[in-house]
Amino acid sequence: MWLVKNFLVIIYSLIIAVISLIIYPFDYRYRISGPLLKIWANAVLIIWGVKVDTYGKENINRSSGKIYISNHLSYLDIFVQLAKIPDNLRMIYKKEINRIPLLGLAMMATGFIPIDRKNIRSAYKSLDKAAEKIKKGISVVIYPEGTRSKDGKTGEFKRGMFVLADKSQAEIIPVSLSGTRELMPPGTLRVKSGKVNMVIGEAVKYRKDKNLLNDLRNIIIKNIK
Prior knowledge:
alpha/beta, single chain, 7 strands, 7-stranded mixed β-sheet, 225 residues
């Protein structure tokens, strides 16, 4: 059954990718692709049978671009947050994904930002692009652990997110996820039906303070349901 669901997700995603490329020349400030991504991600969750309980939507000020930082448990996190965070949301992704036919083009067309982690100069240019998008009202999700958790616990946060925060001067919103690892464990493409919890914390103003990273990590851990 899960193979059938994944097949439907692939076909549906290809259709959305083609639509994204068609609308790209007319998509001023991603006002079309934003809602389109929401529809896509919500539909994928429905196909997989994943329900999301979201808390803290009232903490989001939709008048400006923001940086969302989150713990990272599973690839499912991406779908959950694109679908359920009420914002025009994009993500920074590994540039290797651009090698996948159609998918990489569609992601760039809809405003996602590729980054080459092995090339510092290129990575900084990607962060410049992300900062410009934030200043124009697009919000960005970052997983400061750098990769998915290996044991389900929240790992140490890397300081790279501060580069983007400093460039954009955007407020930072901590997001706490639970349940995604159980529904889509590492090393598998199988997604189980079930429930996920997502808590959106209060916005934190960026400050040049070495303690800020740990403060944000502690908020995320505290808010995990």
